[in-house]
Design goal:
213 residues; mainly alpha; Multidrug-efflux Transporter Regulator, Chain: A, Domain 2; two-stranded antiparallel ribbon; 70% helix; 2% strand; flat
């Protein structure tokens, strides 16, 4: 059967199905004549299993392990239960802190953060995990760096295309064309190198001291 039929049977999108294929969670056969995917009822059953497990919060990695019998369903669910228990404790303690802070009077300038941070530290000693704002900042900085670099590289690529087009309409001295192409190309390469270095810095946690919590 085709992907549209599978998507309807499993009640997920074609994009979901392709993603799960990329993750190795389902491997449909291909028609030897045209190379198109040919899904079977076995694939439908496996996708329903994936849908169930993903809705329960099981990672793709753990689903892969279960597929090759490196992890049993029992052990996977026990691990998931532990995660949910930790999440429940975190939510409960977060609710407690928020409840206490809701009784505060006055504006932000009168809020004594040390009191609540100390309480949170005590909770964390007992295994509670509050939101890691440093990791959140890293993700935001990565996104900003990638977007900025992409804009610059696309702009430089557009300039190179314009130079080539202009030269085809009204030929300019060859040296100028080559110089322009090398200049804009060098900028693209430089931006790519800078982006890679920046992502490595962020991955390593080298944030500005002012943004460490």
């Amino acid at each position: 059967m085709k992907i549209n039929q599978v998507a309807e049977l499993v009640d997920i999108t074609k994009k979901n199905i392709r993603f799960y294929e990329e993750q190795g969670l389902v491997n449909p056969d291909r028609d030897p004549q045209n190379g198109y995917r040919e899904y079977s009822m076995k694939d439908v059953g496996e996708l329903k299993q994936v849908k169930l497990l993903r809705q329960l919060g099981v990672s793709c990695e753990n689903i892969r392990k279960m597929r090759v019998n490196e992890l049993s369903v029992e052990d996977c669910m026990r691990g998931r239960l532990r995660e949910l228990e930790e999440t429940g404790r975190t939510l409960e303690h977060t609710r407690m802190i928020c409840t206490e802070m809701s009784d505060e009077r006055g504006d932000l300038s009168s809020l004594d953060a040390d009191v609540y941070l100390e309480k949170m530290r005590e909770f964390e000693k007992g295994g509670v995990r509050f939101m890691d704002v440093r990791n959140s900042d890293v993700r935001k900085r990565k996104t900003g760096a990638v977007l900025a670099a992409t804009v610059v590289m696309l702009f430089m690529a557009a300039l190179i295309a314009m130079v080539i087009w202009a030269n085809s309409v009204d030929p300019a001295p060859k040296g100028i064309v080559i110089f322009s192409a090398i200049l804009f190309g060098s900028i693209i390469v430089g931006v790519m190198i800078a982006l890679i270095q920046r992502l490595r810095e962020l991955e390593g946690g080298e944030l500005d001291e002012a943004n460490k919590y």
